[in-house]
Specification:
two-stranded antiparallel sheet; globular; 6 helices; 2 strands; 70% helix; mainly alpha; Four Helix Bundle (Hemerythrin (Met), subunit A); 222 residues
Length: 222
Amino acid sequence: MNSENNEVTEYNGNNNDNKNNKPTKSNKINLPNKLTIFRVILVPVYMFFILIPVFSESWSNIFAAALFLITALTDLLDGFLARKLNLVTDFGKFMDPLADKFMVVGALMAITASSCFEDIRFIAVWVTSIIFFRELAVTSLRLVAKSSAENVIAANFIAKLKTLSQCVCIMTILLEDMVITENVKTPPYLFSYITMAVMVILTLFSGFVYFKTYWNYIDPAK
């Protein structure tokens, strides 16, 4: 991933015109960061299909789930490429978890507002509120920690596990009624409720870990 302001520093040791062998800068955005930006662009697209049943409620949800899955897979791919190609940058460390938040909160907000999921709206509103305020608090903490420590706080393992649970929950909500309930004859939204509970627990726990780790940056006693 590229550095701040999307600039990649390049060095050409054979260039005699380069005074004092100083590195030159290029405005090229590398592939992992392009995938991260692409992930952000896809968010309003699948939100549209969740909110507006262009085909039918079921098929629009399936199409939205497919777009959401592609969006989630870019999260795995950009991180893999960044490490594999040694393209890890401050921009990527900051923007990658932020894109995850857009991806998850956007989907949950669309589900909450959609008439298709009116039966679980009451629970979905509370779950979405918890996720939103947790993400807002952790993002604010990361910005304060970055400013104080003059470095970027990368997402830890528990945060990645939290994001995985959020993705599984959203996919379950979008697909359960048509794929699971119709074939297995389970109670409506049974697995959606289960995955929402797991998601909330992991979301709150990962938030607690962040605040415990970086509390010294915001300690009101200081």
